[in-house]
Amino acid sequence: MTSSQQPPPEPSEPPHQQPSGHPPGQAPGHVHSHAHSHGPAAPVSQHLRKVIAAVLIPFAVAVFVGLAVLWPGGAPDHERTGVGFDRQTQQGKVVRVEKVDCEDVNASQVPPTGDTSTPEGSSAQQRATGDCDRATIEVTTGEDKGHRFTEIVQPDQTRKLEEGQGVVVAFAPDAPRELQYSVTDVDRKVPMVLLAAIFAVVVVLVGRMRGLMALISLVISFAVLTLFILPAILQGSNPLLVAVIGASAIMLAALYLCHGLTARTSVAVLGTLISLLLIGLLGSLFIDWAMLSGNTDDNTGLIHGLYPNIDMSGLLLAGVIIGSLGVLDDVTVTQTSAVWELHAADPAMGARKLYLAGLRIGRDHIASVVNTLVLAYAGAALPLLLLFSIAQSSVGTVAGSELIAEEIVRTLVGSIGLVASVPVTTALAALVVSADKPGSAAPAVAGRGQSRGGRGRRRKR
């Protein structure tokens, strides 16, 4: 009977020992799966929370103080030049379109040299022999609402006007009355709003609450950009300082909203911050060394003309930092999550093994992210690259031009920061998660183990 009574206590003992979490050698996998089922929000040890808070709280306070000190209160006023984007605009609508002979509206031209094989000659030939569109436009907003004017659309123009189409019209107050309004673009509000709505619905349907938080963080990011970063730069504040503070505010809001106020998110924030500092230092060094002015096209020239006090090279560096932030968030969050999951799979792994395993995952991420960043910048500069290709310029000539050199510096500095963020964030995550003391992080579980600890203590004896 004595031997027959021994087996029953055997299966009954582990359930009492496992919830306590104290004997790591007894079914550790079950202990972890119980904690992990609650998601990444489970707190780390009290000591680590204090260490992380000691680093992040002063940083967050410094960011909010910087926002308060540099807050611009709106963009400064200036007298409009009527050039490019600096024109007064109103909304309009095409109410009628009719075909007319280009000669009747004085739109035809004689080829300057009589040679129709050149682009100028071919265009002049089309105007001389083709039909033009005479569109009647009605202004639908502003003080001159209801005013109508005509716009001649020549046969070689790529953008045509259709009846009922919404358009953007420029207003030149100093011009004669009949020439004050002209069509500058089409109205794209409806397709843009519809596309944004589809995007929001897809994000929420797939991501659910996490997707909703991502949309809220996106709104906050645009608010920081339009209400703080851009006006502060226009007010004459240092673009680099403004970009660092603004990017830090965006980072804190986006990461904590999307991923929760946890140690895992805090590690990702620290990794992102260190990488941003590296990008800022490298960007500042190479922008100065390569003597990049940041004033390379009509838009930057217009900005410099309107606000000559703006540091254009600093503006270029600010763009590098802000442009790298979005991809940095992705890399640091992914690496932190990878290390946490590796620790979940094998809680006995030390910091070194966690770091090496996480780094192997990060290497795959590096290849795809760097390629993504390079292609994104190349795609944005594609028309410019086509011009160099048409001119049959050498690679050295293309790379040495300031327009392309800006993109090269922007791409390579951002890529260096991205690559560096992988080992930095992985090391931080490995140190934090391996130094964690689960017993001090879950007092309720420990208490439950203590209430049943009598049998456990008797067993140790």
Describe the structure.
With 461 residues, the protein is an alpha+beta fold. Helices cover 64% and strands 9% of the residues. The chain is built from 17 helices and five strands. The chain has a five-stranded antiparallel sheet with strand order 3-2-1-4-5, with no helix packed on it. A hairpin with an 8-residue loop joins strand 2 (131-139) and strand 3. It is elongated and about 85 Å long. The model is unreliable at 1-43 and 439-461 (pLDDT under 50).
Keywords summarizing the entry:
single chain, alpha+beta, 461 residues, 17 helices, 5-stranded antiparallel beta sheet
Question: Brief description of this entry?
Answer:
Helix content is 64%, strand content 9%.
Strand segment tally = 5
Largest sheet features: 5 strands, antiparallel
Beta-strand portion reads: 5-15%
The shape, in one word, is: elongated
Average predicted confidence as pLDDT: 76
Number of helices: 17
Rg, Cα atoms, Å: 31 Å
